[in-house]
Amino acid sequence: MDKNGIVLTHKYELGRLLGQGTFAKVYYARNLKTGESVAIKVIDKQKVASVGLIDQIKREISVMRLVRHPNVVFLHEVMASKTKIYFAMEYVSDGELFDKVSKGKLKEDIARKYFQQLIGAIDYCHSRGVYHRDLKPENLLLDENGNLKISDFGLSALKESRKQDGLLHTTCGTPAYVAPEVICKKGYDGAKS
């Protein structure tokens, strides 16, 4: 369905589709009051409820509100209708690190810069009790100035989620990126660590 021209809450005009996953689509949008470019993540409430992921969405909102760092995608606001949840987020214009890496080897100075930005942002998150749990090149975005931005905190966990054994017992990782030792012998079932 083409969303061009649809206006959310008299504030954001939706544009082209930027990407999509199982439960959400992300659109380019423009703030009608300020002219600022944003990304709108549209989540289907019925789909996430049918698989028991409402708490995960609430956790993602809490985490994104808690984490304010120049190398983490900024959450402007959350809106909702009867059927959808909308995240208005910082628009990061230059795509995924995955696309850049797939075109060939990065120059050492650029790779070092991305790595330093990544570990700085992760250290910041960990110091606030936030664990991303799905870091991969597809969740590392690049802005127009060549800066890295961590996105998609959908599988994140908070320090309070630890059980008595000291482990986080929430789903984590993407099968292609999960360490082999955390994949059960029956196949990947949402690695727990």
UniProtKB/TrEMBL annotation:
Pfam families: Pkinase. One of its GO terms (molecular function) is ATP binding. CIPK serine-threonine protein kinases interact with CBL proteins. Binding of a CBL protein to the regulatory NAF domain of CIPK protein lead to the activation of the kinase in a calcium-dependent manner. This is CBL-interacting serine/threonine-protein kinase 20. Residues 12-193 form the Protein kinase domain. ATP binds at residue 41. It comes from the Eukaryota. InterPro entries: Kinase-like_dom_sf (IPR011009), Prot_kinase_dom (IPR000719), Protein_kinase_ATP_BS (IPR017441), Ser/Thr_kinase_AS (IPR008271). It comes from Cardamine amara subsp. amara. Keywords: ATP-binding, Kinase, Nucleotide-binding, Serine/threonine-protein kinase, Transferase. Gene3D superfamilies: Transferase(Phosphotransferase) domain 1. Belongs to the protein kinase superfamily. CAMK Ser/Thr protein kinase family. SNF1 subfamily. PANTHER family: CALCIUM/CALMODULIN-DEPENDENT PROTEIN KINASE KINASE-RELATED, CBL-INTERACTING SERINE_THREONINE-PROTEIN KINASE 20.
